[in-house]
Design brief:
alpha/beta, 2 domains, Rossmann fold, four-stranded mixed β-sheet, disordered N terminus
Length: 374
């Protein structure tokens, strides 16, 4: 009997020892996770201004996104942080999350999301607590096609969480919250900017005015009711074979504003003539000579009206409306110079009265057809 009892006692102690060793071994091995499973979340929004056309990866650091702290063992020894990535790979997981979060209506503006940064870092705190920090940076751009993007806005999301060293369940919801906020951010931004931001404009509307200044200064801006007078010839008379000379020119000023998502482009056309550069000899100050100089000014007005017509005939895009306008302006400027030269050549600077009369009639006819004269 004594022997049997002893044997049972030894066996019992061995079992206890085995259980103790197994438990102790489990505790001394810090718990780790293989990856973070990012759950899909359908956001409670339906974008009215955009859809996600593309998600691209522009991170400088494409290593595992997280450095997590393992469980502290019973001896209080803390192992080093270990790398963890999103299940399936960070970029593919983020892309899937974004695509599944909001509906995709391709009739709206196409927006590209660039993933610039995503990082989770943890540090051990007192009381077996781990503090985590999450950083996410998105950049949003309008997809203009052919690998062309127009930058719109940036989102810099941050979050801090505290978890028990033995639990990792707080990591994924916090990360998902930061990502969700990024999508809500661009939705709000687009709604607020759609009608007033030139980058989001849906079309271009051009409006013309004839530039003027009041009170009148040195420059005379063309007005059919304000013809030249000899008082406008204020420059010192140079040594010249001509009797009088003016230097009219063509230009424009531009002002753009966004009204209901449309670029309202105001062009102030400058058909102008500086008094300080105009001169006339005393013996030539007669109506005939004044008419010849006035016709030089009229030619500038004709070129200005042709400039308006060519702009009206073109379809201007929100991406590039200044380019075509500048092209047409240069063409109008060349037309003005060519007409001025032709006018002086054919009239022999006004000395050929027959040709001068022909040009008077030609110019008047053109001004009437353009609606400048009645």
């Amino acid at each position: 009997m004594t022997s049997l009892n002893y044997t049972l006692k030894i066996s019992y102690n061995c079992i206890l020892l085995f259980v103790f060793i197994a438990f102790s071994g489990f505790q001394s091995s810090p718990k780790q996770i293989d990856n973070i499973v990012l759950a899909d979340e359908r956001l409670p929004i339906t974008p009215k201004e955009f859809y996600i056309a593309k998600v691209i990866d522009e991170r400088e650091n494409r290593h595992a996104i997280a450095l997590l702290m393992p469980i502290i063992n019973i001896k209080g020894i803390q192992s080093k942080a270990y790398p963890v990535d999103l299940k399936g790979g960070t970029f593919l997981a983020i892309k899937q999350f974004i695509n599944n979060s909001i509906p995709r209506n391709t009739a709206l503006r196409p927006v590209i999301i660039s993933l610039k940064k995503i990082n989770i870092s943890e540090t051990a705190q007192a009381g077996n607590i781990v503090e985590g920090r999450i950083d996410v940076i998105f950049s949003f751009a309008l997809d203009k096609g052919e690998d062309d993007m127009l930058h719109l806005a940036d989102y810099n999301g941050k979050a801090v969480y505290n978890r028990d060293a033995g639990q990792t369940r707080d990591i994924e919801p916090t990360l998902r919250h930061v990502l969700t906020n990024g999508l809500l951010y661009i939705n709000t931004w687009m709604n607020q900017q759609a009608e007033t931001n030139i980058k989001l404009a849906r079309g271009v509307k051009v409006m013309f005015t004839d530039y003027t200044e009041k009170p009148e200064g040195d420059s005379i801006y063309y007005n059919v009711k304000r013809p030249l007078t000899w008082a406008d010839f204020q420059s010192k008379v140079p040594n010249s074979k001509y009797e009088a000379e003016v230097f009219p020119t063509l230009g424009y000023v531009e002002h753009a504003e966004i009204v209901n998502g449309i670029i309202n482009l105001h062009l102030g056309i400058k058909a102008c003539l500086p008094k300080s550069a105009s001169w006339a000899k005393e013996g030539s100050r007669n109506n005939y000579t004044l008419n010849h100089e006035q016709r030089h000014f009229d030619i500038v007005k004709i070129a200005a009206e042709h400039f308006k017509q060519t702009i009206k005939a073109r379809t201007l895009t929100t991406e590039n409306y200044n380019g075509p306008i500048n092209e047409e302006y240069l063409d109008a400027y060349r037309e003005m110079n060519n007409l001025q030269k032709q006018y002086d050549d054919e009239t022999h600077h006004g000395t050929n009265t027959t040709e001068q009369q022909k040009w008077n009639e030609r110019i008047d006819k053109e001004l009437k057809e353009l609606g400048v004269k009645q």
